[in-house]
Specification:
This protein is of the alpha/beta class and 408 residues long. It folds into 2 domains: 5-31 and 272-405, Alpha-Beta Complex (Aspartate Aminotransferase, domain 1); 53-262, Aspartate Aminotransferase, domain 2 (3-Layer(aba) Sandwich). The chain contains 11 helices and 12 strands. The strands form 2 sheets. The protein has a 7-stranded mixed sheet with strand order 1-7-6-5-4-2-3, sandwiched between helices. Strand 11 (369-373) and strand 12 form a beta hairpin. The protein is globular.
């Protein structure tokens, strides 16, 4: 291998130190596996439910069981789980356009949204935004205090669990539970929505278990287990799901149509394996956090801190180190390992993004990948890893290559 013996020895030493943290991850994986298995058994899934449907997709029993399984896992009464939802951003957009009408107020209670959400809301001036539709917007960060005036006026209050492109802590279930109670006390009529991307199966509870009215996410992140080829999910209260479904299809039709195109089996295998895959990604993130911190880099979260999503942020402080990190992750991928990557504008983003994703599913971030905006202080965001070993060795190689240029 390309990794020097000194770093391989360091990796073995670090693994021994991290054993108690890995054991905690394994315990959560075990509990989540049992929850997922129970959801499958509760709908009495049969092999005949996995059939291909096309066209309108009428009377697709498999689709109905998929949505019942997701509803039970994520703590809702109903769900929309479809290959026609192409990303987490798409799931968020469908939900917001389904719930909000002209004149309504949308409030982000966890601070500014992830970059792709800016276009949906109209923070960046793009055609077809909620702003263009006449929806008003406000934001605050609940960790700095609750803006009661905004909450009282809000139709929808959103919490984004993951840190996005910031160097802060992602939102834990305990924090989220307390925050939702505050929102409900101030405005019982507000709809609480949670962007659950990168957070599924990291803890024992999901947002629907702690009071969220609507939970959304992507199937090419945690919930797809590295197996789902595309898709997204929306889980929540039945009346809200019915409203959102009219945006997925059409008013009067809702979620009664929609072909699964042979992906029912793929989606169900993905969610079944997801607790295992997420636990491997978490082990890898903990390992990366430890070795980069020991090498003098600022990281978040630190290896011993509670994990609330799969994302590991590493602050490099230099653009050349960030690019070297991303290029090394790409070179250690099973797909496109010989590709030379560079920063570029991406649809939905305001800044140039560098992205390493030598993945089997394009854009999958439960497979080992990393991305970053090319802005100071040049923070890399590492996520995923179907195998723990993939993240471990890629991290060691990346550290080795960065140390070579650190003295320049």
């Amino acid at each position: 291998m390309m990794i020097e013996k000194e770093l391989l020895d360091l990796g073995r030493k670090v693994e021994l130190e991290l054993k108690p943290y890995f054991e905690s991850v394994d315990l959560i994986r075990e509990k989540n596996f049992l929850k997922v298995l129970d959801a499958f058994q509760s709908v009495k899934l049969h092999d005949s439910d996995l059939n291909y449907t096309s066209g309108y997709g009428y009377n697709d029993i498999g689709r109905e069981k998929v949505e019942s399984i997701f509803a039970k896992i994520f703590g809702g009464a109903d769900a929309i789980v479809r290959p026609q939802i192409i990303s987490g951003t798409h799931a968020i957009s469908l939900t917001l356009f389904g719930l909000l009408k002209p004149g309504d107020l949308l409030v982000y209670a966890s601070g500014a949204p992830y970059e792709t959400g800016e276009g949906i809301i109209g923070i960046r001036d793009v055609p077809g935004s909620l702003k263009e539709f006449g929806v008003h917007y406000g934001e605050f960060n609940f960790r700095d205090g609750f803006n009661e005036d905004l909450i009282r006026k809000a139709r929808v209050v959103v919490f984004q669990r993951s840190k996005g492109y910031t160097f802060t802590d992602s939102i834990s279930m305990d924090e989220l539970e307390k925050a939702i109670k505050v929102v409900n006390t101030i405005n019982p009529n507000a709809i609480v929505m949670v962007d659950n991307c990168y957070g599924e199966f990291v803890e024992e509870r999901e947002p629907g278990d702690v009071g969220a009215d609507i939970v959304v996410g992507s199937l090419i992140k945690n919930a797809g287990g590295g197996i789902a080829l595309t898709g997204g999910y929306i889980v929540g209260n039945k009346d809200l799901i019915q409203r959102i479904a009219t945006r997925l299809t059409a008013p009067g039709v809702g979620k009664e149509i929609g072909p699964m195109l042979g992906l029912t089996r793929n989606i169900l295998q993905g969610i079944f394996f997801a607790p295992l895959v997420v636990s491997n990604a978490l082990r890898g993130a903990i390992f990366a956090s430890k070795i980069f911190e020991d090498a003098g880099f600022e990281v978040k979260p630190r290896y011993f801190e509670k994990r609330t999503d799969i994302v590991q942020a590493i602050k490099f402080g230099r653009v050349d180190m960030l690019i070297k990190f991303a290029q090394t992750i790409q070179s250690f991928s099973p797909v496109d390992s010989d590709a030379e990557i560079e920063s570029a504008p991406l649809p939905g983003y305001g800044n140039k993004i560098i992205m390493a994703a030598g993945t089997f599913v394009q854009g999958s971030s439960i497979e080992l990948s990393c991305d970053a905006p090319i802005v100071p202080p040049y923070i890399g965001y590492l996520q995923g890893g179907i195998y723990y070993e993939h993240t471990k060795y890629a991290s060691l190689l990346a550290l080795q290559e960065i140390l070579k240029i650190s003295k320049k």
